[in-house]
Amino acid sequence: MLAYCEVVNDRMNAAFKALADPTRAAELLQLQQGPAVPSDLAARIGVSRQILSNHLACLRDCGLVVGVPAGRNVRYELS
Description:
The chain is of the alpha+beta class. The protein has four helices and two strands, in the order ααααββ. The protein has helices at 2-19, 22-32, 38-45, 49-61; strands spanning 65-70, 73-78. Strands 1-2 form a two-stranded antiparallel sheet. Helix 3 crosses helix 4 (49-61). The chain is globular.
């Protein structure tokens, strides 16, 4: 039981750390309106695609977003 609590605690800490960044919070707010590809998200938020990609990777690793292949792109949505 203790191991399960530690895993849950680690995931919660990672999620809260991800949410603490204003850029990642802005990405989540944009994705709340519906799925989007990174280039559209970057334009809406006003950051480079490289920065956005790094933040999306963090959100994906925390389990907050998922990437769905859409042709040549990956469409991101809230998990």
